[in-house]
Amino acid sequence: MFYPIIISTFAGLSTAVGALIVISGKNITTEKMAQAQGFAAGVMLTVSFFDLIPESYGKYFVYMNAFYAFRAVASLFACGWVVGMAISSFAVPAMHYEDVSKASARRMALLTTLVMIIHNLPEGMLTVFSTTENISSGIRLALAVALHNLPEGMAIASPVLYVTASRKKAFMQAFMAGMAEPVGGILAYCVLHSIINIHFINGLMPVIAGIMCQTAICELIPDSVRLSNIKHTLYGIITGIVVMSIGLFVF
User: Fold this and answer.
1) First-to-last C-alpha distance (Å) of the chain
2) What is the SS3 assignment for 192?
3) Which of 50, 94, 153, 198 has the most C-beta neighbours closer than 10 Å?
4) Can you tell me the distance from the alpha carbon of 60 to that of 72, in angstroms, rounded to the nearest whole number?
5) Which residues contact 127 (CB under 8 A, 6 or more apart)?
6) For residue 58, which phi and psi values (nearest 5 degrees)?
7) Which range of residues forms the domain containing residue 118?
8) Longest pairwise C-alpha distance within the chain
9) Is the pLDDT of residue 101 over 70?
10) What DSSP element (H or E) covers 104?
11) Distance (Å, rounded) from C-alpha 239 to C-alpha 29?
């Protein structure tokens, strides 16, 4: 139990390292904030379409034909999209301040952090399961997770730094989101082990992808465009896709 949790914690800490990259620079302008939200959207879309969905489909395809595997993943993705809409509407309601750009960024900071926590919890479960079965494969998985947690930490820290101008708050929010990894592992191993297994986590992946895509397409990208213009948004999206793709394909 000790080693799987330590390895999962290592993977989660890289989210804080991503925040360090952000807070080591200058304060974020409105234009940079628009790029940051585009970046977060690019990260979420890449994780969804190049990691979560293909991996889940591949595992369903082992014991289903192509059509039924696709239907299972598509149905779960649709469920995630609905959950994402609920999170956007009810869990993170609109915030009203005199400065519209700050209100938008504050809401996006909370929404991005919440979505990343939802993503990190099952990642931590999967890392702990893999390490328990085979420590070598668990370490390889943790390295892959750590690498793609770096841009996630950047995506969380950027709006927090923009809103608060506090490097400490930006770091701590990313750090807390990263700690969802070991928390997920502990929950899976000690509390929910009777219902959570590899098959459960596999079904959760397209749900999380749906949440991420809904957040990126319906919240982050439109808000980014409103903050500045489409050019800065596209720069951010492309950068997020490139950075996250490197993290995914290296491992």
Assistant:
1) 25
2) coil
3) 153
4) 8
5) 4, 7, 8, 11, 138, 141, 142, 145, 181, 185
6) -60, -40
7) 2-21+29-250
8) 55
9) no
10) helix 100-133
11) 18
121 token code pair: 């919890």
Across the chain, what does the average pLDDT equal?
85
| Token digits of residue 9 | 């914690």
The pLDDT tens digits of the residues spanning 5-29 come to: 888 888 889 999 999 989 987 777 8
What distance lies between CA 27 and its chain's CA centroid?
23
Cα 105 from Cα 251, distance rounded (Å): 32
Structure tokens at 251: 């491992």
Name the pTM for this structure: 0.83
What's the structural domain count of the chain?
1
The percent of the chain in helix, strand and coil, each rounded to the nearest 5, is 85, 0, 15
Sequential DSSP letters for 119-181: HHHHHHHHHHHHHHH-HHHHHHHHHHHHHHHHHHHHHHHHHHHHHH--HHHHHHHHHHHHTHH
State how far the Cα of 250 lies from the Cα of 50, in Å rounded to an integer: 13
Task: Give the pLDDT confidence of 192-203 residue by residue, as tens digits.
Answer: 666 777 788 889
